[in-house]
Amino acid sequence: MATFLYKLGRLAFRRRHFVALIWVALLTLAGVGAASAPAAGNSSFSIPGTEAQKAFDLLEQRFPGMSADGATARVVFKAPDGEKMTDAAHKATVEKTVKELSDGSEVASVAGPYEGNAVSKDGSIAYASVSYKVSGMELEDSSRDALETAADEARDAGLTVEIGGDALQTTPETGATEIIGIAIAAVVLVITFGSLLAAGLPLLTAIIGVGIGVSTIAALAAALDLGSTTSTLASMIGLAVGIDYALFIVSRYRAELAEGRSREDAAGRAVGTAGSAVVFAGLTVVIALVGLSVVNIPMLTKMGVAAAGTVVIAVLIALTMIPALLGFAGRRVRPAGEKSKLLGGGRAKSAAKAAKPNMGTRWASFVVRRPVAVLLLGVLGLGAAAVPAASLELGLPDDGAQPTSTTQRKAYDLLSEGFGPGFNGPLMIVVDAKGSDDAKAAFTEVGDEIKGLKDVVTVTPAAPNKAGDTATITVIPDSKPSSASTEELVHAIRDKGSDIKASTDAEVLVTGSTAMNIDVSQKLNDALIPYLILVVGLAFLLLIVVFRSILVPLKAALGFLLSVMAALGAVVAVFQWGWLSGLMGVEETGPVMSMMPIFMVGVVFGLAMDYEVFLVTRMREAYVHGEKPSQAVVTGFRHGARVVTAAAVIMMAVFAGFIGSSESMIKMIGFGLAIAVFFDAFIVRMAIVPAVLALLGKRAWWLPKWLDRALPNVDVEGEGLRTRSDAGDEDRELVRA
């Protein structure tokens, strides 16, 4: 592989105009496609194989005009202190508002408070329900404007009016902190390379790669039903890995220049060596992201595949466009150790300063001397950070997780005040009595059985369809939607359903947003272990091929488990317990998003293997070329620690930039990935890995002879390039700019 990539790097360097033209054309094509594509709404949320989804599908068949997946809104009214919503003046205001709400072309139905018994017992709070024909993200702005205008007019009449539901759902904003993250990345690159031009190359290529990836997603969004979160995740991952992959190749290029190679040969060797590591690091990220499809949640699968596509683009750009741009830059990209004149370059270094070992060398030497102490300290530190993960509570965010300043949260609180906390999470019971001899009796029995259960406040009468073979029953729990009591109630109703089916042949299904959230959490929990086995197993085999070792990949996988558990602990501490929540902009604590654990496992594993491959391949390279195991560790850090540190800081900055998002899901993902990179890069890869390798010695690189013969030789270390005769290069030019 190293020889092939070497030739590719030299070809891209020589044919730089052609390579640059291809990538610019692809960016233009993707941009035109995105601009001309129809606007896409929110990705449809379906969970195949769950009872809640089965009930939704049944409703679509038996209640064709119901728009079960359409957007909903609850317009909540509160009378001034001492007054009631049943007063004539307030009643007239509400009825006028309801009439205005019914005029929209996208409105399916409107239920006023006085016809539907939607007034609180004390008469102070009432609500109107609005159902739409399309989902929240597909609503026209005019429909949202009409909703807010009607509410404003009711406010002008003296009422407190707030709006809840997903009708006000909009595309999440990432905020200015994302730009700050990119700015931090730029500063780190300038410090690392000592050159503005060299620092600009990784940023430029990463932005082009993300531009192509996100534009392609936008162009295909309507056709493939991709939501806004898909492109946000793709840009987050693509920007981080795009900068890192380019950083490693530019860094290796400068190192090759420092050894006196010609610029074309240095570009080829950089792509042949660092590029090999980029390919395998990218493969691990792709495996982890595409592997999310085993969960069988379409939205998660699309997010993973789209992000994986952006990673593939980042790898291809790093292998081709970086050497092409290095060709354009010429002598302005200087050998390693030299800075541009603008940043203080050109000054002669003293012999003592030049011979002084760098920080990576000093740190690795310390770890090699004290491996047991460093290993224990690292493991205990991560173990302590992981402790909060034992209290992990999972759920999907609802309006109760919104900031207290939003109208959705205010509506949620008003409904809880007037009708009880469970009112915000009603359960919809779907009774399929098509196979029953007496459908009406079955409907009655279901309602009676549910009324006798614990934690039930209200059970509405059954509402059958026109055929009379299917009915819906609404159940209001006594507890809030995300509570354990509500989850127990859902399971209790389902248990009763099996008894009812035995006696009446009617099937009882529980659905609604609350039941769907419970089913999603259960599905994700059930898929976590199979997903871990699949992703870690495939990556383990891949790393065996890369490192030609059994213990090094095993150590990499165990280190990853430590870092991901510590990161989950930090997420629980901030988003569930509320530690540092003000600093992170978390206005409301609550359960951790259900898909967070499996999502973090996938993404963090891929990113963790990046640092493992980049750092340990340098050690492997030194060991293969004759150094002792302990010295190989130090050599690997001398060449790779500075660049890996820069890459980790950049990735943390990019991820942390998404903490400023208005969407709680994106905020949590940004924080979780940023803290996971910190734990994995600086504690696992920079401390635990060298300590373990120092303790293992030669055993770290042991591989059974039969397996060694069976494995393909991918030559990540570039041994094939080492055997090339430098004198045989046609255009070799010794340069020390």
Shape, per Cα inertia axes? elongated
Largest sheet: 5 strands, antiparallel
Low-confidence spans: 346-354, 725-737
Strand content: 5-15%
Which structural class fits the helix and strand makeup?
alpha+beta
Q: Over all CA atoms, what is the radius of gyration?
A: 30 Å
Give the count of helical stretches: 24
What average pLDDT do the residues reach? 82
Distance between the termini: 30 Å
Helix content bin: 55-70%
Extended strand count: 11
Write the SSE topology.
Blueprint: H1 2-14, H2 16-36, H3 51-62, E1 72-78, H4 88-101, E2 107-111, E3 125-132, H5 141-156, E4 160-164, H6 177-193, H7 196-224, H8 228-258, H9 263-290, H10 298-329, H11 351-355, H12 359-369, H13 371-386, E5 394-395, H14 407-419, E6 427-432, H15 439-451, E7 456-459, E8 463-464, E9 470-477, H16 484-504, E10 507-511, H17 513-547, H18 551-576, H19 581-584, E11 592-593, H20 596-624, H21 629-656, H22 664-696, H23 705-710, H24 719-722
Parallel strand pairs: 5-11
Antiparallel strand pairs: 1-3, 1-4, 2-3, 6-9, 6-10, 7-9, 8-9
Task: Describe the 3D structure.
- With about 725 residues, this protein is an alpha+beta fold.
- The chain has helices at about 1-15, 15-35, 50-60, 90-100, 140-155, 175-195, 195-225, 230-260, 265-290, 300-330, 350-355, 360-370, 370-385, 405-420, 440-450, 485-505, 515-545, 550-575, 580-585, 595-625, 630-655, 665-695, 705-710, 720, and strands spanning about 70-80, 105-110, 125-130, 160-165, 395, 425-430, 455-460, 465, 470-475, 505-510, 590-595.
- Strands 6, 7, 8, 9 and 10 form a five-stranded antiparallel beta sheet that branches. It has a four-stranded antiparallel beta sheet with strand order 2-3-1-4, with helices on both faces.
- Strand 8 (about 465) and strand 9 form a beta hairpin.
- Helix 1 (about 1-15) packs across helix 9 (about 265-290), helix 2 (about 15-35) runs antiparallel to helix 10 (about 300-330) and helix 13 (about 370-385) runs parallel beside helix 18.
- The longest helix has about 35 residues, at about 515-545.
- It is elongated, with a radius of gyration of 30 Å.
- The protein starts with a helix and ends in a 15-residue tail after the last helix.
- About 55% of the residues are buried.
- Residues about 345-355 and about 725-735 have low confidence and may be disordered.
